[in-house]
Amino acid sequence: MKISRLVSLLLILLLTALVLTVLAGYDVVALPAALPMTARWLFLVALAVYASQRRSLTFWIVVSMFVGAEFGHDFPAMAQNMKVLSDVFLRLVKTIIAPLVFATLVVGIAGHADLKQVGKMGLKALVYFEVVTTFALFIGLAAINLSKAGVGVSQVGMEAEKLEPVKQTTADIILHIFPENIAKSVAEGQVLQVVVFAIIFAIGLAMVHGRHRRPMLEFAESLSEVMFKFTNVVMFFAPIGVGGAMAYTVGKMGFAPLQNAFYLLLTLYAALIAFILLVLLPIALIARIPVKRFVQAIAEPVSIAFATTSSEAALPRAMEAMEGLGVPRRIVAFVMPTGYSFNLDGTTLYLSLAAVFVAQAAGIDLSFGQQLVMVFTLMLTSKGVAGVPRASLVILLATVASFNLPAWPVFIILGIDAIMDMARTAVNVTGNCLATAVIARWEGEFVDNYVAPSLTDLAESDSTVAQHSH
């Protein structure tokens, strides 16, 4: 069956299911009780057939969210037994966090040991990254505290899972940051302790002779690549985990959590737009970056990032675009990859939103200081994972658990995570592209009237080089 026919069938079935559901709900006409439900399930079957044609993991996650919600609504007693599926997925995700964070942080810090050679440019880039991501952090916090998207989620049936935050003194909090045994920290899921260990390890690695540093750095790079692939494999189970979690949640609490998830989605998009207008645009104007040319240059890589939800997929085209804008290649080659580890504007903003949303949904009040500690932890643990779709979800789950918050609100987020991932990844790419232009201007090397060589010019240049070589 052609895709266009499938789409038409989907629309017809969706419209039919909606009409029958509304008619049955308002008793407009007498309908058999099973008719609206049958129409909805026919729509879901057609949607699954369409998903099999698309072969997109993101689309399958969306389909499983709808199927799980419908199953939880129609068969609530059976749906409550589906929690095991989400628990399996949660356990698999938790196995990723420690090796992924350790490897990406070591590569991100020790792999850029040439910061000493780059000198002032490296320092300027790191200062810029931290300032901008801090703005993103506070905008995310402000947005979720204003919208209160997680407040009001029904706690019926969830009392047994609700955890109260542990009362700790300031000394306890400080001591809790530092590991006494890294194996114990990994086993207990203490992600901040893993981060501290990885940072100190990376600094020590950067200080040793190149002959000793290279093997360990290669091991860390290999480990990070393997863990990225491991994440991809685990994410193939995501549709099943999402379906089970959604069925269980709707079976327990009805459709109220989905309404809160929609509020969270609107909050994220509004916060990202505010970040672009209030932070990135003023930075571009202050640095005298030609905004119109910049927008034209990044249009393609940002579109790729939005569609694929992967920053790495857009990296080659983004680097070309920045060179075409007038940023020297040596600056692009340093700032862009470094930014992928340290300048995750969209991801940082999303994580601050999502972490506080979890606390709000669980009915746990966090002080502003507690929120800052949690999102600062998320900001550190997210370094280096922006290139992998939904990797930020891995970080969120692990950090939420380490702060003694329940995991079930995260699965409410998971149902719409793909839609949120598109926007935050696009902002990540936009922020990194702007960073290269700003650092180039800061270094006094931005070419304002740069004209990229055409293919004809390049061909003529190659022929000239060839003639001289003979």
From TrEMBL:
Ranges annotated as spanning the membrane: 34-50, 57-76, 96-113, 125-144, 191-209, 230-250, 262-287, 349-373, 393-416
Instruction: Give the membrane topology, semicolon-separated if more than one.
Output: Multi-pass membrane protein
Keyword set for this entry? Cell membrane, Membrane, Symport, Transmembrane, Transmembrane helix, Transport
**Cell location:** Cell membrane
* Cell membrane keyword on record: yes
Question: Where in this chain does the entry annotate a coiled-coil region?
Answer: none
**InterPro entries referenced in this protein's UniProt entry, alphabetically:** Na-dicarboxylate_symporter, Na-dicarboxylate_symporter_CS, Na:dicarbo_symporter_sf
Record's Pfam families?
Answer: SDF
This protein's record includes keyword Cell membrane: yes
| Superkingdom of source | Bacteria
Protein's UniProt name:
Glutamate/aspartate:proton symporter GltP
> From what organism does this protein derive?
Hymenobacter fastidiosus
The protein's gene is named: gltP
